[in-house]
Amino acid sequence: MNSAAERAELWVGAAVLAVAAGFLAWSMAGSGLASRLGGGYELRAAFPNVDGIEPGTDVRVAGVKVGRVAAVDLNPQTYFAEARLQIPDTIRLPSDSAALIQSDGLLGGAYIELQPGGAPDDLQPGDEIEDVQGAVSLISLMMKFVDSQASDDKP
């Protein structure tokens, strides 16, 4: 083989590696993996019900995605689901903040909404958010409504 063909193969190989590195960086940014590998801190929240929440679920403040759920585990002593939330270092939440499980509509997915409080001190890495509201089941709400209507109709 001549040296021109070898150089061409070298350049093509370098281009393929550059494209692969670009795709890797893009996928890490989209998946939140970069924030898990570098900066950021973890908060915990124990919910009575985390229906629809799993690792990778969005964590939002004022509707803006600021982090992801890193893990969800059952606490065998309390039987609450403990979610670990990965938050970037640039977001500091007051210690009296609340965590609520919200839905993107009737058929949309669930996410965790953080509502900042007004306390002068901030939550530190590893702290637990005490004020939580678990997932609300649409089926159970409809059943309560039907039951209340049925009891109103009885003479």
UniProtKB/TrEMBL annotation:
Record-annotated membrane-spanning stretches: none
Highest taxon listed in the record's lineage: Bacteria
Occurrences of domain Mce/MlaD (ranges): 40-117
Pfam families: MlaD (PF02470)
InterPro entries (UniProt xref): ABC_MlaD, Mce/MlaD, MlaD_Phospholipid_Transporter
Gene: mlaD
Protein name: Outer membrane lipid asymmetry maintenance protein MlaD
Organism: Paracoccus mangrovi
PANTHER family tied to this protein: INTERMEMBRANE PHOSPHOLIPID TRANSPORT SYSTEM BINDING PROTEIN MLAD, INTERMEMBRANE PHOSPHOLIPID TRANSPORT SYSTEM BINDING PROTEIN MLAD-RELATED
Classification lineage: Bacteria, Pseudomonadati, Pseudomonadota, Alphaproteobacteria, Rhodobacterales
